[in-house]
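Rather than argue in generalities, we reproduce a single protein record, letters for residues, whole numbers for local backbone shapes, just as it appears below:
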Amino acid sequence: MDLIQIIYELRRERERILAMIEALERGGSGQTKTARKRRGRKPMNGAERQEVSRRMKLYWEKRKKGESAIVKANSPTVGD
């Protein structure tokens, strides 16, 4: 391969790399330089919200049952 051909291919590769860098800086990765990461919870649709609601109801039911067993075990009996 001659020297001119090598230089030509290297310049072409450099242009391709620079174009990729520019695309990424413009937001090709989904974020721009000034974009900030989103904080907090992700948005939920109705079905997801209902599923969470169902799970939390079960959680609190079990928790209340466990709590009442603890309260009964720790409460003084009437003849003590």
